[in-house]
């Protein structure tokens, strides 16, 4: 199988002129932890533990995998971004390649660029797509076919979890993200990665296209908190949501305008705080 479908299940097309290693490290060290409350809420609701065999599409640098594995789950992460996947291997430790055994405490984990084969393995009972959709033009287009490719690896009636940004009025980060749309409009705003307002039924539409049956949903508070403005800019740009803006102008211009947009969220001590709400949709395969 090719990694193309999984690659599309990301925030954006990573073709902007940014060092990929630095970008991946910024995501892992600054931005990904903002989504930890989302991961925890989903795992609490589904009672993820030792019986869980989880397949995570677009696993990134592996924080969700690490949290699930710490609860006793067997985890497999798939991601076409080699830099983020390398960082995930660092987090989960040695022995997380496609065919390597893993010692305790993360005793059942692997990380691969392509969807694994189902031959000779117990089927997965949980599929997750934790890269939130609903803020970048076309960010859901590859998700339904990626799910269609992954669902045959799951047991009948397995749980599938989709995640997305909450309503713009509940996300303090939304006005900052609008910088991406405004700057990209100066060129070709329709290129992949341009910001767009979240729509109410984004997750439900993906579920319908993938042939999944919704079975509950939830909202989770995921505030974005940063030590300073520089960390906030680096973290936000690591999401890929500003890639189209960088292509349309240049990185320094985007950094300047994002810094200005962050001003209302800077607290007296210099930290940055932006309350946000994210959604998740629980489905049955």
From TrEMBL:
The keyword Membrane does not apply. Residues 1-10 have a biased composition (Basic residues). It is an enzyme of class 2 (transferase). Transmembrane segments: none annotated. Residues 55-93 form the Methyltransferase type domain. InterPro entries: Methyltransf_11 (IPR013216), SAM-dependent_MTases_sf (IPR029063). Residues 1-22 are annotated as: Disordered. This is Class I SAM-dependent methyltransferase. It comes from Streptomyces flavovirens. The lineage of its organism: Bacteria, Bacillati, Actinomycetota, Actinomycetes, Kitasatosporales.
């Amino acid at each position: 199988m090719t990694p193309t479908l999984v690659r599309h299940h990301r925030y954006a097309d990573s073709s902007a002129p940014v060092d990929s290693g630095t970008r991946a490290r910024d995501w892992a060290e600054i931005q990904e932890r903002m989504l930890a409350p989302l991961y925890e809420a989903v795992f609490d609701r589904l009672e993820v533990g030792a019986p869980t065999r989880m397949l995570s599409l677009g696993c990134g640098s592996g924080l969700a995998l690490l949290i699930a594995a710490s609860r006793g789950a067997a985890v497999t992460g798939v991601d076409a971004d080699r830099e983020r996947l390398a960082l995930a291997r660092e987090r989960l430790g040695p022995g997380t390649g496609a065919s390597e055994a893993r010692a305790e405490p993360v005793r059942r984990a692997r990380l691969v660029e392509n969807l694994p084969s189902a031959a000779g393995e117990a089927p997965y009972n949980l599929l997750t797509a934790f890269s939130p959709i609903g803020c970048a033009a076309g960010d859901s287009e590859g998700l339904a076919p990626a799910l269609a490719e992954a669902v045959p690896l799951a047991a009948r009636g397995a749980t599938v979890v989709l995640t997305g940004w909450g309503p713009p009025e509940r996300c303090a980060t939304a006005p900052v993200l609008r910088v991406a749309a405004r700057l990209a409009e100066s060129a070709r705003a329709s290129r992949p990665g341009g910001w767009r307002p979240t729509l109410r039924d984004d997750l439900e539409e993906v579920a319908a296209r993938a042939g999944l049956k919704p079975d509950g949903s939830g909202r989770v508070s995921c505030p974005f908190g940063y030590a300073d403005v520089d960390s906030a800019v680096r973290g936000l740009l690591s999401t890929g949501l500003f890639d189209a803006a960088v292509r349309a102008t240049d990185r320094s211009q985007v950094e300047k305008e994002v810094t200005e947009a962050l001003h209302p969220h800077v607290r007296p001590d210099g930290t940055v705080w932006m309350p946000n709400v994210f959604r998740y949709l629980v489905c049955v395969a």
